[in-house]
Write a structure and sequence with these properties.
single chain, mainly alpha, two-stranded parallel sheet, elongated, transmembrane helix, ROH1-like, membrane, transmembrane
Length: 353
């Protein structure tokens, strides 16, 4: 696992929307749409803050975070529909940024799915351990070999997760969206998209930190106070990042709480298996084996549920991208700058096959 890094300097972004109200002449309808979106966003952020800090980096929280991210991206789709802003009215810069970022998000989803699958594969090692210890004839050497295999598998690195850091760097560089001059609807859309990008980057950075065993890319984003959801975001970010950094300073094999519970069970069982069983340890073996089964099943179920939410997010990003590309083709507005990005979509999808 990577060693704890010094806290990252906050990423300060200028407020690209300081002119959104000045001279924008937003209609009551547009103001109401924007307000509804931002109020909903703030409420979603408040619900993301764990009541118990022990829930931070649990699979249940990560599942809820991904579920919330799906809801936020669905909210922006709803807003786009309500704005009645046809694709032909989109600036080419907006389209390029959207398509480029969507590919990056698809790649991040693929990396997360890959790591969840890798972690789930560790279940096979522990199933072998349980098989060799729960039968009438105990196979201690085989059980020990499987425990060693589990430890080696869990401590290995996933290159796709390491690559996420570079992808998130690119997302951070484009978080300051293009300036909007003559479109009131465009201003509303870009302001809403800014919020979606900030929260997406924040949540993805937490996932990458949890999966990689490194907090080097745990982001600290500064959101201008002009956004009504800024306070909720700042509170959530401070709470999560501070606790995650504390966890890193005291961690063992992992920072994932559910995986740590499995590791604790393995550590209790290992010396019994290693030394061989005597009458005094029979009860301890039974208890440790039962505990390992419980923790293993909980971990596997948690990973399965998280995998479903990551896949749901992938599908939301992909369908949104497909819809935009379809509208561009129908309108005959596919530019040269868009076409290469369209090809990347096919590459990203094929990676999952």
């Amino acid at each position: 696992m990577g060693r704890p890094q010094d806290p990252q300097r906050p990423l300060f972004f200028g407020n690209p929307f300081r002119m959104i109200y000045k001279g924008a002449n937003l209609s009551p309808k547009l103001l109401d749409l924007l307000k509804t979106f931002e109020v909903t966003l703030a409420e979603r952020l408040k619900k993301l803050k764990p009541v118990d800090r022990e829930d931070i980096l649990r699979l249940s929280w990560m599942r809820f975070a991904m579920e919330s991210l799906c809801a936020i991206h669905t909210d922006i789709k709803t807003l786009i529909t309500a704005l009645e802003l046809p694709v032909c009215g989109w600036d080419a810069k907006w389209i390029d940024v959207y398509l480029d970022n969507s590919v990056k998000l698809l790649d991040i989803c693929i990396a997360f799915s890959s790591e969840i699958s890798r972690l789930n594969q560790s279940h096979l090692f522990l199933q072998c351990v349980l098989h060799n210890l729960e039968g009438a004839s105990k196979q201690f050497m085989r059980a020990q070999s499987s425990l060693d295999g589990w430890r080696k598998h869990i401590s290995s690195k996933n290159p796709r997760i390491e690559n996420c850091f570079a992808i998130m760097d690119c997302l951070a560089e484009t978080i300051d969206l293009p300036k909007i001059k003559n479109s009131a609807k465009g201003k509303v859309l870009m302001r809403a998209m800014y919020g979606v990008k900030v929260i997406t980057l924040f949540i993805c950075s937490i996932f990458a930190a949890a999966f990689s065993g490194s907090m080097k890319k745990l982001v600290d984003l500064h959101v201008p106070e002009t956004f009504s959801w800024a306070e909720a975001f700042t509170d959530l970010q401070a709470s999560m990042n501070n606790e995650i950094r504390k966890i890193y300073s005291n961690r063992r094999i992992t920072v994932l709480k559910d995986l740590e519970a499995v590791d604790t069970s393995v550590n209790k069982l290992y010396p019994i298996v290693q030394d061989g069983l005597d009458p005094v340890e029979a009860e301890a073996l039974q208890y440790s084996t039962s505990d390992l089964r419980t923790q293993t099943e909980n971990f596997s179920q948690g990973l399965d549920l998280l995998a479903k939410e990551v896949d749901s997010f992938f599908q939301i990003v992909l369908t949104g991208r497909d819809a935009l590309l379809c509208n561009l083709r129908v309108g005959g507005n596919v530019t040269k700058s868009v076409q290469p990005t369209d090809n990347i979509q096919g590459q990203a999808v094929r990676k999952i096959d």
